[in-house]
TrEMBL record:
Protein name, UniProt field: Ankyrin repeat-containing domain
InterPro entries in UniProt: Ankyrin_rpt (IPR002110), Ankyrin_rpt-contain_sf (IPR036770), SecEffector_AnkRepeat (IPR052050)
Species: Phytophthora oleae
Cited SUPFAM superfamilies: Ankyrin repeat
């Protein structure tokens, strides 16, 4: 049932996610939450967070949330899951999507700075370095 819940989360189908978790056994919520975050499905992310045991999602959820460009989701995750961080994929995802507002927020929260070599290629590709942001 893991695949069913992951796909339901990816598509924002909260009612399906809730039904699967209440009627079957699902081994992990990490990929479901990351899939929901990547699609910008805030209600699914919030329900998974509030109703299931907290797993250590490492960076996957935050990285995928940066992909969708939903700053309110990123702020909520940052506040409610403070032990989970970012990887270069989150910054790259935001840059690839052209989400300058996300890159600015990451910069303001000391995740991204001009001395960071881990994602300079993506940020240059997005045209954010060399321009005020």
């Amino acid at each position: 049932m893991d695949v069913v819940v992951i796909e339901a989360a990816r598509n924002g189908n909260l009612d399906v996610v809730q039904w699967v978790y209440s009627h079957t056994t699902v081994n992990s919520t990490e990929e479901a939450m990351a899939s929901a975050a990547g699609g910008g499905h805030f209600p699914v992310v919030k329900w998974l967070h509030e109703n299931l045991p907290h797993e250590d999602f490492k960076n996957a959820v935050m990285d995928e949330a940066a992909r969708c460009g939903d700053l309110s989701l990123l702020k909520w995750l940052h506040t409610n899951r403070p032990d989970e961080g970012w990887s270069t994929f989150g910054i790259d995802n935001a840059a690839r999507g052209g989400h300058l507002h996300i890159l600015r927020w990451l910069r303001d929260h000391e995740v991204l700075n001009e001395d960071s070599d881990y994602s300079a290629y993506e940020c240059n590709g997005a045209g954010v370095y060399g321009k005020p942001f």
